[in-house]
Amino acid sequence: MPDKLVTSVVDGVPVEGGRTVASYNPARLDEVVAEISFAEASTFVDAAASAKRAQAAWAAVPPPVRGRAIAHIGRLVEANMHELAQLVTRDIGKPYGEALGEVREIVDTCDFFLGEGRRLYGQTVPSEMPDKQLFTFRNPVGTAAIITAGNFPVAVPSWYIVPALLCGNTVVWKPAEYSAAVSAAFHEIFVRGGGLPPGVFNVVHADGPATFAGLERALADGTIDKVGFTGSPEVGREIGALTGRNLQTACLELGGKNPLVVTPTADLDLAVEGALFSGFGTAGQRCTSLGTVIVHESQHAELVERFAAATAAAAVGDPTGDVLMGPLLDQKFADRYDTFLEWIQPHHTVYGTPGRITAELPRAGFQGDPAAGLYYHPVIVDGVRPGDALFDQETFGPIVGVTTYVDFDEAIELANAPGYGLSSSIYTTNPADAFAFRSRIGAGMVSINNSTSGAEAHLPFGGNGKSGNGSRQSGLWVLDQFTRWQSMNWDYSGRLQKAQMDVAELVPDTEFRLAGGQ
């Protein structure tokens, strides 16, 4: 049984909700990781009001001091890195090596934004008038509601919460229902490590309907000034519409159908290695997971043969061991993944065994007991094409499509066809192909000879089209999500100078001609 009940924390005080739900380890379904007290919409509204009350005092803390708070958080995460990674593995079944990398990303994010506490720069701008100076400043947005998915239960929240706090905003965070245990630990580390005052960082554990109802009320009340959301395009559309009605623009990071293009000059061994990690790391449950391999017809047969062999040999099983792929995150994702498998058509060629790993459908070399958790076979589906659901739609799970192309223009057309625009990859040794791909792909992120997955903490992360609204997380670029530009003009001339009206003009001599010119 879990050590304690996971509750919402509002204004520094635990708040129990209306019902209690058990959260299970997806690798060992008989193990309860946490009992979660689910809040009602009113708790979200109260958390937003608490954040609003705390915001002015938090914004008054000098940015370098807020930066030092972020640094302390990073050091505390670093000191508890292995324990936090183990909890990620228990909570969502992510292989321990990946979980440890995710926790390191929090540290990287804190290290980066420590410096930004001394670099929330504005500008001094020359005026068109004498005895007048112009300035720009970054001001905090105010209160931020952050709603995140559970496939990256600590790394992705840090992309939002660290810069939001650094910039002087207060936060209401709604983590995923199925990753509540590690979310509670994350919140506790941040509050303790940063010495954050009550109300600065609130956490609300709630289901989707209660969260949406609470967010709707808080936006109408004016207690939420910014919304950040990572999740599905369907929910993203609803949140975008809700914020739009309240004259806000949400920061939306949604799903992906990420292409990996293999050109005639590609190193096939490297391409297969990249496809294997892109497609089946985290059991294909990343927004940046590989959707479709788009391979030149001359490389198709060999690529598929090597990819299928590598997939068959990949270590699958208990995520506490050295495996490529553990279980699916939660029963609801397993149920949804079963519907994706129904999209396989007669014209497709399937490599692997579609479905759950069982005694009747075993996997050679499986590590552990497949009956204990939500384990599925990794599957490659060759012959997908536009119009197929497997080609057009995101498939959150361990299934990768393959299609072929004849020329580069067709490869680009296929890569852009699903309408997502998050991550992309091309394998080539031809620089012209690499740069042409970069300029023509619709994705916000491009990899050359690397996987579709993976991002460093100081690069912009985000997508276009169905993958998001062009907003970006991480690096300097996320500062524009959590600050608002303010301009100031200071006239010390002692008289009213009217812009565009009292501008002095130099008078050019338009009749001048150089003597003796030809």
Summarize the structure.
With about 525 residues, this protein is α/β, with parallel strands linked by helices. The protein is built from 15 helices and 22 strands.
Shape: globular
How is the main sheet built?
7 strands, mixed
Record field, number of beta strands: 22
Number of helices: 15
Share of helix, binned: 25-40%
CATH topology of the largest domain: Aldehyde Dehydrogenase, Chain A, domain 1
Structural class: alpha/beta
Q: What is the CATH architecture descriptor of the largest domain?
A: 3-Layer(aba) Sandwich
Fourth-tier CATH superfamily name of the largest domain:
Aldehyde Dehydrogenase, Chain A, domain 1
User: Which CATH class of the largest domain is shown?
Assistant: Alpha Beta
| Average pLDDT rating | 95
Keywords:
single chain, 518 residues, alpha/beta, Aldehyde Dehydrogenase, Chain A, domain 1, Aldehyde Dehydrogenase, Chain A, domain 2, 2 domains, 5-stranded parallel beta sheet, 15 helices
Describe this structure in words.
By secondary structure, the protein is of the alpha/beta class. It has two domains: 5-254 and 471-484, 3-Layer(aba) Sandwich (Aldehyde Dehydrogenase, Chain A, domain 1); 258-457, Aldehyde Dehydrogenase, Chain A, domain 2, CATH 3.40.309. Helix content is 36%, strand content 21%. It has 15 helices and 22 strands. The strands form six sheets. A seven-stranded mixed sheet has the order 15-16-17-14-13-19-20, with helices on both faces. Helix 8 links the parallel strand 11 (226-230) and strand 12 (251-253). Helix 1 (41-60) crosses helix 7 (208-221) and helix 3 runs antiparallel to helix 6 (180-194). The longest helix is centred in the first third of the chain and has 21 residues, at 96-116. The chain is globular and about 90 Å long. The protein starts with a strand and ends in a 27-residue tail after the last strand. The mean pLDDT is 95.
